[in-house]
Amino acid sequence: MNHRLALLLDLDGTLLDTAADMGAALNRLRVEENRDPLDFATIRPNVSHGAVRLIGLGFPAAEGNEFERLRRRFLELYAADIAAHTCLFPGLDAVLDESERRNIPWGIVTNKPGWLTDPLLSQLGLDRRAACVVSGDTLAERKPHPLPLLHAADAVRVAPERCVYVGDAERDIQAGRAAGMTTVVASYGYVSATDDLGSWQATGIAQHPAELLHWLDEARLCPPGVGA
Question: By Cβ atoms counted within 10 A, which residue in 9, 23, 103, 159 is the most buried?
Answer without folding.
Answer: 9
